[in-house]
Recover the amino acids of this structure.
């Protein structure tokens, strides 16, 4: 890519239009040649980028990178000032995790001149945005984290909204004032009840997408609300923090994320076994949960109820 076009692409998330390539000195034949031999690739109609090598990234990171590129391509197709990146697309640009989002579809909000609906991989929303609702990320106008959370919660599931809200709180991206403002703003939205429920339930102590999802699972299965990230110690000192603690039930739940032991290997597993033995020595029931359990909510909840029952019988026997 020549320096003129490289400068343009760098300011647009690596994306450039056919007209921008022509203005930078490329001929139609040169554009077609580069698309044909794989040096460039078509992101959407009339929008291109140099070919990305994402083979070394985990699948979810690869999807996020591709979505960011789609967002830039969609915005580069719009007249300036006519659209704002919103909903889960805005959360992704802000670096907030999302769940159950269609990453093949870009979300934009337009205040006028376009009806709602999906066209060519872009879902257009109609909405009135104030200056307080919009910021900038990567040179693009983007709804704020608080507004994007409300947009996503209003259109999606409680679980997906909690995943993003937990992460936003954990990262210090959501203030009490912003939450109050967005709750007032969205009080009469069709998805208003889900927005209020998700923001009220959100907790910055949930440390991962998996923990957030398991919080929702326990809540929806009628389990009592656990305390999060509780530290235990014994005569030898601090044992460590547990993900979920049920006060008065002598039961803790540990959520084992996909990458928890990836770096430590066998030694990490041994240390975790020692840690668990120390917790059990305190009279605690220890329940381990994994991503697999998220697909079987009733079974996962039953395992915790059984732990409560074992703890109760142990107390009575003592």
């Amino acid at each position: 890519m020549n320096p003129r076009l490289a400068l343009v692409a760098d300011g647009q998330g690596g994306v450039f239009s056919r007209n921008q390539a022509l203005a930078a000195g490329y001929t139609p034949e040169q554009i077609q040649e580069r698309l044909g031999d794989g040096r460039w690739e078509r992101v959407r109609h009339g929008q291109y980028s140099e070919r990305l090598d994402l083979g070394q990234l985990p699948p979810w990171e690869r999807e996020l990178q591709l979505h960011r590129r789609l967002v830039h391509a969609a915005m580069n197709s719009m007249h300036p000032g006519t659209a704002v990146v919103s909903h889960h697309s805005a959360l992704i640009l802000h670096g907030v995790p999302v769940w159950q989002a269609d990453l093949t579809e870009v979300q934009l909000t337009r205040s006028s001149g376009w009806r709602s609906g999906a066209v060519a991989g872009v879902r257009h929303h109609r909405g009135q945005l104030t200056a307080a609702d919009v910021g900038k990320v990567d040179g693009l106008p983007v709804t704020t984290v608080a507004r994007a959370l409300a947009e996503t919660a209003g259109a999606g599931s409680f679980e997906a909204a909690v995943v993003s809200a937990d992460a936003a709180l954990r990262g210090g991206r959501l203030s009490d004032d912003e939450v109050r403002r967005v709750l007032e703003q969205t009080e009469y939205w069709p998805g208003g009840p889900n927005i209020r429920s998700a923001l009220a339930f959100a907790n910055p102590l949930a440390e991962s997408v998996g923990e957030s999802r398991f919080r929702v699972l326990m809540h929806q299965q009628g389990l009592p609300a656990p305390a999060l990230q509780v530290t235990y110690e014994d005569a030898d000192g601090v044992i460590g923090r547990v993900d979920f603690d049920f006060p008065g039930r002598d039961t803790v739940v540990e959520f084992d994320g996909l990458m928890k032991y990836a770096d430590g290997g066998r030694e990490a597993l041994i240390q975790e076994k020692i840690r668990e033995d120390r917790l059990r020595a305190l009279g605690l029931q220890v329940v381990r949960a994994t991503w697999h359990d998220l697909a079987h909510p009733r079974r996962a909840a039953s395992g915790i109820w059984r732990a409560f029952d074992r703890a109760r019988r142990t107390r009575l026997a003592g």
In short: The chain has three domains: 3-50, 82-203, 212-317.
